[in-house]
Amino acid sequence: MLTREQISELIPMGSVARLNFRLKQLRDAGYLSSRNIWGFGSAVQLGYYLGPHAPELFDETERAAVRTHAAEAADLKVAGLAHRMLVDSVHIRFLTASRQYPNYKFLTWVDQYSPWWQKLREYGVPVQADGYGEYIMLLHFDALLTFFLELDRCTERGEGIRSKIDRYVQFAKTGQYEERFATSTPFRVLFITTGKERLEHVLKIIEQKTDKTFWLATWKDFKSSRLMDAYWRRPHKDGYYSLSSHL
User: Fold this and answer.
1) Which helix (H) or strand (E) holds 131?
2) pLDDT tens, residue by residue, 205-240
3) Per-domain residue ranges of the chain
4) Which residues, in sequence order, are CB contacts of 85 under 8 Å at separation 6+?
5) Domain 83-224 fold
6) Alpha-carbon gap, residue 182 to 3, rounded angstroms
7) pTM for the complete prediction?
């Protein structure tokens, strides 16, 4: 399920008029379907997903999976849909950043509903985050940079937030991640919050536990900046940091 804005980020089509025309063509031909969705501000907008004729574009071996994905998108419940689509927006930003950064390469994404979380739990990962990603900045330091995504919409409070932070802190201290993922670079936890007040609140909780691991940004800064701009806060550190930093 993608919004018009998300589709335009994935596949730039020039003007809004051209994008609307193409989406209408695809929907009229049955390659896309759409439904009303909420969650991005107060207005209703359309969410697009694979239509009844979409399987025709795939090999015979893939058509059953395409039909399953289309049916799942059509049946997505309203509750949780806004959060899911915001996470998809973060994924799209990492996926398309190579257009702006020739030396950047996005390698891995595990979304919040992937069965791979079972394997990650076997590797000692103590949380099921909103996403897990890996990328490198070639010719810069060529090190693998990895992150767990926590998209905070101010729905989790008190002990829930503290427990999650504690689990990340303890996992980082054990060194299991570096050993089992065969990397010399510690993982990061990217916290994207609803606004500055919420960011400061979460940052204070984190600073009681550690001065490492966590990177925080508001949704507004993340969405309005280029991916590798310096807009991330870190516990017990002044200033703003870029995800391209090898820290």
Assistant:
1) strand 131-137
2) 999 999 999 999 999 999 999 999 999 999 999 999
3) 4-76, 83-224
4) 1, 2, 3, 6, 37, 39, 40, 47
5) Trna Endonuclease; Chain: A, domain 1 (3.40.1350)
6) 37
7) 0.90
